[in-house]
């Protein structure tokens, strides 16, 4: 999140308008698929994180249904407490929810998970599945998500547009925000970039933040199209009259070449809000109040 969305308040919005806010658990983002009597969790790069039986529909031999009655969940796995915190649901017993609104998906997720024993750890369900609490984006709801104590350590806040459908990749309808109160890693400014033929390292939008030296390319066997992780000291941006954005970074240092399974580069907005003075929790609280609904940060 770089700028505060207009109409961030979700309490008085009708017909699915407005936003909800969720505390994001600390952990590893993964995709959980329960199908044909087995449950598999995969990282964003596609590698297998866990393979196990679960109490999800079709997640074990005991809960197995037909081949078309699988489940797909967007989760964060916390290895400290052995819990999959469920962010979102894309499919439940074969019923596709990609085109359903976030408001409906969150209701469906809470309701359907409560009908299973997936929240209880047992030999048939070695990892718990817990839905993440969500709140209307009112001053009270945002304050609860920000200041409240939960069963997990937080790593930022997630804002979902109630009317938004599930989108793969970047979406302006799902925003991540964090600071020193909500995250143990607020100042770790790292970003994954794509290497071009000219050795430039670009964000997913095509903003070049640095250029690799030929010896770095050779020493780490990097070729055009590879993804690399870099640390950044400062990031600045300007928005032109035509709404185009110019991004400038300083203190960019190469860290490592990423696995080919990583997929895509990051957006520059991933870390921009951390450096923004116009997107503090106080600004967000003001934006969720009725008087601030039409004010952009």
Automatic annotation (TrEMBL):
| A UniProt-annotated Pfam family | SPN1_m3Gcap_bd
SUPFAM superfamilies reported for this sequence:
DNA ligase/mRNA capping enzyme, catalytic domain
A single GO BP term for this record reads: snRNA import into nucleus
Provide the alphabetized UniProt keywords: Cytoplasm, Nucleus, RNA-binding, Transport
Q: Where is the Snurportin-1 m3G cap-binding domain?
A: 16-175
At the top level, the lineage of the source is Eukaryota
Q: Which family does it belong to?
A: Belongs to the snurportin family.
A GO molecular function term, named singly, is: RNA binding
Per UniProt, subcellular location reads as: Cytoplasm; Nucleus
Tell me the InterPro entries matching this sequence: Snurportin-1, Snurportin1_C
Q: Please give the function described in this protein's UniProt entry.
A: Functions as an U snRNP-specific nuclear import adapter. Involved in the trimethylguanosine (m3G)-cap-dependent nuclear import of U snRNPs. Binds specifically to the terminal m3G-cap U snRNAs.
Q: Name one GO cellular component term.
A: cytoplasm
Enumerate the PANTHER family for this protein.
Answer: SNURPORTIN-1, SNURPORTIN1 RNUT1 PROTEIN RNA, U TRANSPORTER 1
> Which species?
Saprolegnia parasitica (strain CBS 223.65)
Instruction: State the name under which the record lists this protein.
Output: Snurportin-1
């Amino acid at each position: 999140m770089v700028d505060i969305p207009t109409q961030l308040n979700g309490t008085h919005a009708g017909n699915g308008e407005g936003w909800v806010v969720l505390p994001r658990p600390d952990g590893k983002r993964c995709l959980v698929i329960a199908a044909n009597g087995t449950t598999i969790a995969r990282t964003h790069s596609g590698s297998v994180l866990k393979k196990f039986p679960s109490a999800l529909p079709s997640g074990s031999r005991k809960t197995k249904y037909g081949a078309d009655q699988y489940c797909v969940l967007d989760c964060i796995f916390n290895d400290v407490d052995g819990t999959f915190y469920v962010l979102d649901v894309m499919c439940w017993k074969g019923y596709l929810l990609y085109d359903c609104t976030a408001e409906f998906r969150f209701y469906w997720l809470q309701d359907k998970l409560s009908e299973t024993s997936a929240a209880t750890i047992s030999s048939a369900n070695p990892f718990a599945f817990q839905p993440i609490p969500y709140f209307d984006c009112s001053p009270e709801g945002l304050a609860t998500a920000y200041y409240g104590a939960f069963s997990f350590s937080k790593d930022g806040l997630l804002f979902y547009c109630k009317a938004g459908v599930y989108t793969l990749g970047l979406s302006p309808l799902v925003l991540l925000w964090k600071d020193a109160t909500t995250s143990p890693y607020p100042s770790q400014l790292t970003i994954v970039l794509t290497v071009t033929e000219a050795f430039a390292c670009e964000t997913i939008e095509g903003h070049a933040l640095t250029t690799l030296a030929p010896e770095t390319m050779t020493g780490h066997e990097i070729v055009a199209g590879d993804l690399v992780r870099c640390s950044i000291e400062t990031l600045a941006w300007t928005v032109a009259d035509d709404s185009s954005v110019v991004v400038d970074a300083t203190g960019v240092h190469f860290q490592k070449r990423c696995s080919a399974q990583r997929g895509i580069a990051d957006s520059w907005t991933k870390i921009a809000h951390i450096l923004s003075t116009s997107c503090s929790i106080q600004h967000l609280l003001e934006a969720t109040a009725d008087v601030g609904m039409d004010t952009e940060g």
